[in-house]
Amino acid sequence: MKGLFTFSLAVLFTFASFAKSMPANYFPASYDQARSEFLLLAQETGGELTRFHIPSQTDDDLSLEALYLAAPDSQKLVIIISGVHGAEGPAGSAAQLDFLKNDARKWREKGLSIILLHAINPHGYRYKRRVSENNIDLNRNFSLDPDLYKTPNPSYDKLQSVLNPQGELTSYFLTTSRATLGLLRAITLRGVSTDEIRNASVGGQYNTPKGIYFGGTQPEIQVAILTYYLSPILRHYADLLVLDIHTGLGEKGVLYLISSSSQTQRDREALLEIFSRPSEETYELTTSTDPGFYPVTGDITDFFHQLAPNKRVVSVTVEFGTMGLGLVSQLQTLNRLIAENQLAMYGARTAKIRNRVQERFNELFNPQDNEWQQQVYQRMRFLYDDSLESFLELN
Ligand SMILES: [Zn+2]
């Protein structure tokens, strides 16, 4: 009995030390609150803060903040990114603010240089859209290669009418059931495979500016800003670890680390050393070709391989799942994106319909669900504590 008791106590203590509870107000309530807190905490660190104004047709108060905390003689740089997809911003900001409060000084003293890039897409963050003001998905737009913007996507073109219904939204139910029927019809009657639907719709497209997953016809200003800002800094480092925080894809509460498709064998080996403790309680390591995930073009994690071609680069999408990976969940996710895009392009007949579409969309990318938020907090804490130590020790 005693043995059993000791054992349970040990388990209890291990779990208690791992599963700290989320502090109150961990998730910022809005873009403005996140930015003010970021600025305040950034100034306290004494690091080099740079602010970039993001021009807009309607809003003169949008900015991207970059904080650089250089450790003397360091060869290793960690970059933590939030809000590439605006609506997913709160989880990324929360993780960055927590890092500023509890980790930044410690890791700099240990010898890691750090850059935090806050709210890459501030317009989407403030107005709760994934995309930029130009309807561009920035995670399909990041590249130094102009040919990206000519990438064809014939499967997308085939599904055009299903993915991008036109005209004012008259009913959420009607829009989503039409989309579901259209997709099922494509599968059953036109022989389109589910993989083809997934790759077509979410992989990125460059010829339908009003459509979902539009990657643009040229780089957005953020591509120029990051190139200009990061290029001179990256020269000083041999090793880069990039954590780009997202939400939405995958099983609820699970943290997926999706590796860049541009990594070399050497990058891959470093990745496996840094993230060596995948488990149900921590994270899953996936690649964009695993079931439920998908290869995309113009991804910011690939962009770091272009910016620092001769360095060792471990660049991962840190994705907190919200909906699930099954076919039904994927259809639901796609439906919500289709409806939100139709709303943004053509409007809704009533405020009630508009609210319904926005609520469903927000549930997908910023769930107000305490259990999910706790999981984000705990998994992010583990990721910082464990992977930064491993990155520091990397030979
Ligand atoms: Zn995202």
Describe the structure.
The structure is a single chain. It contains 15 helices and eight strands. It has 395 residues and is an alpha/beta fold. Strand 6, helix 11 and strand 7 form a beta-alpha-beta unit. The structure holds zinc ion. Zinc ion binds next to strand 5.
Radius of gyration, Cα only, in angstroms? 21 Å
* Structure class: alpha/beta
Largest sheet: 8 strands, mixed
Overall geometry comes to: globular
Cα separation of the termini? 46 Å
Element string (H = helix, E = strand): HHEEEHHEHHHHHHEEHEHEHHH
Q: Which residue ranges are poorly predicted, with pLDDT under 50 across at least 5 consecutive positions?
A: 1-17
Q: Helical element count?
A: 15
Please estimate the helix content: 40-55%
- Strand tally is 8
Strand percentage: 5-15%
List the helices and strands and how they pair.
Blueprint: H1 2-18, H2 31-45, E1 48-53, E2 63-69, E3 76-81, H3 89-102, H4 104-110, E4 113-118, H5 122-126, H6 154-158, H7 160-163, H8 172-188, H9 194-202, H10 221-234, E5 239-248, E6 255-259, H11 265-274, E7 284-287, H12 300-307, E8 312-321, H13 327-346, H14 351-365, H15 370-393
Parallel strand pairs: 3-4, 3-5, 5-8, 6-7
Antiparallel strand pairs: 1-2, 2-4, 6-8
